[in-house]
């Protein structure tokens, strides 16, 4: 049976509801230990109308005293009165355990704004790159098609600054190396690169960005393109990976068209997965949250 680690994430969210309502579905398929503060978990479980006990685990590496009928948690005591500091500490411990065990690490959603108030924080994909000294990439895996953005969480007005042959070549080489890694078990039938400007720049009359893209991509036999973003996803085939130039260009159609999806961080020495949604604190404790993405992370 697979063993996985689950970083609890921000409890001002639907995270605990997702974990609780999914437990009966996955408990006979995967063993998992929650990494987080036991009291925070307990407080939220009590507010959800799901009857389940909490079992504290002292050895998250060997899963000693594991009970499949309970939520098994490795307690990380809070070290500060600031939520951001406590969550960063939990992330670092989760990262340490995943690196040492090579178990999959599922990270539940966080509210990035609580970190940005105190530090430079782009996102979890980028933070894992920083603490592991690795180059990471954000792959969104879907049941119909997958998407990986060339640029992720940056201001739209800054995107054109990254469109140069050196950065594109490095990105593509990293991607091709990553999807060939046995650890990840990824398989794509085709890889398509989207263009930057509307209509792929209309024969270079909108700027030279798309010409740079086209020339760089032509060096790689594994990738085709460039394709206009307004039509590329029509009749998209299962097993296709789209490379979008920026975040929303790819993730808007991805989230609309895929029913089952997850976020996969490439570049680490373990598989880091995450549900393809945010904290959704506006529906916290309402028992209406969709757990399909979380279950896909657990069964993947």
Task: Give a written overview of the molecule.
The chain has 300 residues and is α/β, with parallel strands linked by helices. It folds into 2 domains: 1-134 and 268-300, 3-Layer(aba) Sandwich (Isopropylmalate Dehydrogenase); 136-267, 3-Layer(aba) Sandwich (Isopropylmalate Dehydrogenase). The protein is built from 9 helices and 12 strands. The chain has helices spanning 15-26, 38-47, 83-101, 113-116, 124-132, 165-179, 209-217, 247-257, 292-299; strands at 2-7, 30-36, 54-56, 71-75, 104-107, 137-142, 146-149, 190-194, 223-227, 240-244, 261-266, 272-275. An 8-stranded mixed β-sheet has the order 3-4-2-1-5-12-11-6, with helices on both faces. Helix 1 (15-26) packs across helix 9 and helix 6 (165-179) crosses helix 7. The protein is elongated and about 60 Å long. The two termini are 13 Å apart. The model has no long low-confidence stretch (mean pLDDT 92).
Order of H and E elements: EHEHEEHEHHEEHEHEEHEEH
Shape: elongated
Structural class: alpha/beta
> Approximately what portion of the residues adopt beta-strand conformation?
15-25%
Brief summary:
The protein is of the alpha/beta class and 300 residues long.
Topology:
Layout: E1 2-7, H1 15-26, E2 30-36, H2 38-47, E3 54-56, E4 71-75, H3 83-101, E5 104-107, H4 113-116, H5 124-132, E6 137-142, E7 146-149, H6 165-179, E8 190-194, H7 209-217, E9 223-227, E10 240-244, H8 247-257, E11 261-266, E12 272-275, H9 292-299
Parallel strand pairs: 1-2, 1-5, 2-4, 3-4, 5-12, 7-10, 8-9, 8-10
Antiparallel strand pairs: 6-11, 11-12
